[in-house]
Amino acid sequence: MLREALRIGSRRCFSYKSVRRPNLGATSAPKAEPEKTADAVPGTGNGSLAKQLRAKILATGPITVAEYMREVLTNPQAGYYMNRDVFGREGDFITSPEISQIFGELVGIWLVAEWRKMGSPSPFQLVELGPGRGTLARDVLKILTKFKLGAEFSMHMVEVSPFLSKAQAQRFCYTHETLPEEAQLPHYQVGTTATGTKAYWHRRLEDVPQGFSLVLAHEFFDALPVHKLQLANGQWQEVLIDVAPESEPEAANFRYVLSKSQTPVSRVFQPMPGETRQTLEYSLETDRQVGLLAERLERDGGIGLIMDYGHFGEKTDTFRAFKQHALHEPLLEPGTADLTADVDFKLVKSTAETRGHLHCCGPIEQGLFLSRMQGEARLEQLLANALPENEAIIRSGYEMLTDPKQMGSRFKFLAMFPGVVAPHLEKFPVAGFS
Hints:
Strand content: 15-25%
Distance between the termini: 16 Å
Shape: globular
Helix content: 25-40%
Oligomer: single chain
Radius of gyration: 22 Å
Largest sheet: 10 strands, mixed
Low-confidence stretches: 2-18, 20-46
Mean pLDDT: 86
């Protein structure tokens, strides 16, 4: 199957006290190399979003890091992702599908291989959470179209950004249209690919129709809001964001503070068995989204593949911002830079296994996955058909994806299957993971 595929064509008001930002330490982010200092550098944020946040905090008190992150990234008027293209070399960061077509092709081949192993059910749905520019969906679509062997499938993109949803449709649809809000349908945009596959855009995973689904999440969970918690006096307290006093130097607008009493999240938070960290990040939204995905896969059947940078429950402070491919202070000029935090794959895996009784494989490093999927063979095939002036670009792109010092070890892959197929997968191991 894998060798056959290699012949594809090219290409709230709480009491609180001031707190210094915890040391970020070494992160696994592939987006930039510089070290971040331990001290917070509060921002001045003079834009409209900064003014909105300042007014909100002055009126109701400090807000959680999760609320700040949600507003900065998805505020309908001024959110970072909502009205512009932030990807690529001209944006603030570049993603794996944009670096090399090999990435999307091998993910597509993996999906086809595991779908066939489960009996090639038809019809099925290709679902992507947070599709970015639509590059991964386009490359996977190419593979599915070639190897589906007569099966029927539809595409379902879960996207909150009106700007990005149009960019995605332009990337892989022949025609598309945005539907009026009064239509009150579970999708707000619909399109058709050049080969006749229907594509739908939804604002929530809950709106995607039931059915056997191949679900992809690439750099989706790292953008979900996180709460920052700190163990103090035997109980978990939450790091909040407040307006800085005018007496502070440079008239800083925002600062981190630590709640003196427990917040709703710190009160209900239950650390995983064996937890030894004194500070950590906890994403309620990640827990919720993984739970929804797990229940869907267990109920309707399907396969999930999460691809993101993260850790397995050992890191503490990874909340950071990126602007023009460099680290940026998260509290500075909110809405102009990407906010992100490493994915806690230990939490993701535990939630999937308990909420949906799923069978999970991984996480494993991206470089290892691509190598096991015969990425080097595909690279040599592309080089054999490339113009001499493009060879260095193609080779360096694949090296960036697989080199442990670049993205190869920082990104992780986690696969999810319904628990009922676990004995079958032990007999026929999951491609790329074993």
